[in-house]
Amino acid sequence: MREIVILSGKGGTGKTSLMGAFSHLASNFVACDLDVDAPDLHMLLHPVNEATQDFFSGHEAIIDPGRCTGCGLCADSCRFQAVDAAGAVFSVNPLMCEGCKVCVTFCPEGAIAFPERRCGNWHIAATRFGPLVHAQLFPGSENSGKLVALLRQKSREIAGSRDLELILCDGPPGIGCPVISSLSGATLAVLITEPTPSGVHDLKRVAALCRHFKMPAAVIINKSDLNLGVSNEIRSWCLHEGWTLAGEIPYDPAVTQAMVHGQALTEYLPSSAPVRIAVQNAWKRIESMGHDPKAV
Amino acid sequence: MILSVASGKGGTGKTTVSAALAWAWKAPLDLMDLDVEAPNLHLFLDPEIEACEKAHLEIPTVDASRCTHCQMCSKLCQFKAISDMGRTLLIFPEMCHGCGGCLAVCPEKALKPGLRELGEVCWGQAGEQGFFMGRLRVGEAMSPPLMREVKARWKRSGQTQKRDLIIDAPPGTSCPAVNAVMDSDVICLVTEPTPFGLYDLKLAVEAFRPLGIPMGVVVNRYGVGDAAVFDFCSQAGLPVLAKIPFSRSLAQAYANGRVLTRAEPALVPLFRDLADQLQRMGRQAKEVPGDA
Questions:
Q1: CA–CA separation, B84 vs A83, rounded Å?
Q2: Between 20 and 30 A from A207 (CA), which of A67, A101, A278, B211?
């Protein structure tokens, strides 16, 4: 089973637009949106949810004001500055509570409840390209690598039961918890960059993360003609660092129009469009890499 | 006053707007890059970095000779960072959130504080303006503790009452983004007029609204996509503070690492006006706290 994850470090480089196109071009696969914070893939794939479940992660401390004597031990023991005085008693700011249970443990009055926290929901859905596993974390919730791991697990189950050989994942931006979680068990990372100072800077960070976890990776330069000099730099950097350059995609405002129309750019653009051809070629390259990890 | 520049969706132009606002700001100002996973503001401001300091999280280490395997620590730990194997107490440092519960609960004093490197905090000067940033260590999962360290460094500068602060926040709508903006006086949400931009803007508004901080919207790449974002803003009562027109030449200026106000003088009045509006919103909110 191959598991390809699309990452970028910097946000807005085109992960989801390319994921939409790859979903159109791939066959026999399950799609998975791992950007549970700000999931956008559904606006291209228009999923019909077949199953929806709540996602619980961790707990939160809630002080019962009727039993709180105002001793303040909870505030002293909290390392997240989540407990504040509220008049004569104390209360927990849910946005800052880490769910560590320390205040619950040390409260001499047993005045702090510790219920499970509902952080979002996740869905198994059907789309015109195949099954999609996706989720929505409630705004402001803890961005849990756990939800990412859960979506991966469900994707594997679906791939197994429906005899699909590829899991294609749209990843989150950054290099932190959800990204690390999205790399676990993957066979290939596809790094989308753009020829801008930020694009290059953040590409190097996410590539260093891949190296840290010994994850093979391929690079795609999106909007490559916006700065030919920087695109050249990225090309030589890939060569030097031993990353495969899977494609270079020119800038075309029609890509935004495809998004406005809710379509993959390979569906929306005419077959002669240079962007569409470049994306198709990039996908061919990635697909062949995914088949033979030794080619990486 | 503290202004946070935030967005749900990544790549809408937070850093571009932060850098241009820094250029247009009239009062004494410090700048802070809290997108510690992918920090970019320094690429546009080119600050002179005075110092970088490693930041750490306090994690437990075990003194095996004192551990009686009472399991109070492993039962308390909510993050699977401590596991008692009967004869060995295993600690998984990468899982630890640094709550200190295990250190406090151990009756044998068998756990001692150790450190996990989170990354580094750097500070310096960008012209007249102070500059602060965090850079998460590659492989480190948790960004909020490092973000707290960057804020603490700024507070230690002793200038926080005399100077305004612009925070370049991380993308997203969850814990790190909320942590970045929560003590601001005003939030500037940068979006683009596309379905992705709008969807993530809605999520950001939903995430930040409970904070009770006044918010305004900057629509970047105005002219691409559609007009739905303006309908949403008027329904949600969010002022659209500025529309930055899209042009290929602006995209190229950004690709060359240039601050927009320098690359395109026609945008100077736009950013001066944006800076004035945000300063006014922030000062009003500061004068009437809780009335936002």
A1: 30
A2: A278
**pLDDT of A294 over the 50 cut:** no
Q: Do A189 and A281 belong to one domain?
A: yes
A180 and A103 co-located in one domain: no
How far is the C-alpha of A248 from the C-alpha of A278, rounded, in Å?
Answer: 7
- Chain A contacts in chain B segment 98-117 (CB below 8 A): 98-101, 104-105
Do A152 and A248 fall into the same domain? Answer: yes
Question: pTM of whole model > 0.90?
Answer: yes
Are A102 and A11 part of one and the same domain?
no
Same domain? For A32 and A166 the reply is: yes
Same domain, A11 and A150: yes
Q: How many domains does chain A have?
A: 2
B261 shares contact with chain A (CB less than 8 Å): no
Beta carbons of A100 and B99 less than 8 Å apart? yes
List, in sequence order, every beta strand (DSSP E) within B105-238: 111-126, 129-136, 164-168, 186-191, 215-222
Q: What is the CATH number of the domain that holds A132?
A: 3.40.50.300
- By the CB < 8 Å criterion, does B119 face chain A? no
Given CB atoms, is B142 within the 8 Å cutoff of chain A? Answer: yes
Contact across the interface for B207 and A40, Cβ inside 8 Å: no
The string of DSSP letters for B64-90 reads TTT-----HHHHH-SSS-EEE-SS-EE
pLDDT tens-place string over residues B43-88: 999 999 999 999 999 999 999 999 999 999 999 999 999 999 988 9
Q: Does position A190 have pLDDT exceeding 70, yes or no?
A: yes
One domain, residues A89 and A152? no
Query: Which of these three, A92, A114, A136, is where a domain ends?
Result: A114
Q: Quick check: A50 and A124 in contact, CB under 8 A? A: yes
Same domain? For A109 and A247 the reply is: no
CB contact under 8 A, B138 and A175: yes
Q: Which of A168, A146, A149, A150 is nearest to A159 (CA)?
A: A168
DSSP A8: -
Domain with residue A68: its CATH number is 3.30.70.20
Lowest mean pLDDT among A125-134, A186-195, A273-282, B153-162: B153-162
Q: Is the dihedral of CA A202, A205, A209, A215 positive or negative?
A: positive
**Residue A145: which of B139, B141, B199 has the nearest Cβ?**
B141
Set of chain B residues whose Cβ sits within 8 Å of the Cβ of A230: 255
Range of the domain at A80: 61-114
pLDDT tier at B166 (50, 70, 90 boundaries)? very high
* Interchain pair B10, A230: CB under 8 A: no
- Give B120's contacts in chain A (Cβ within 8 Å): none
ipTM, interface predicted TM-score of the complex: 0.93
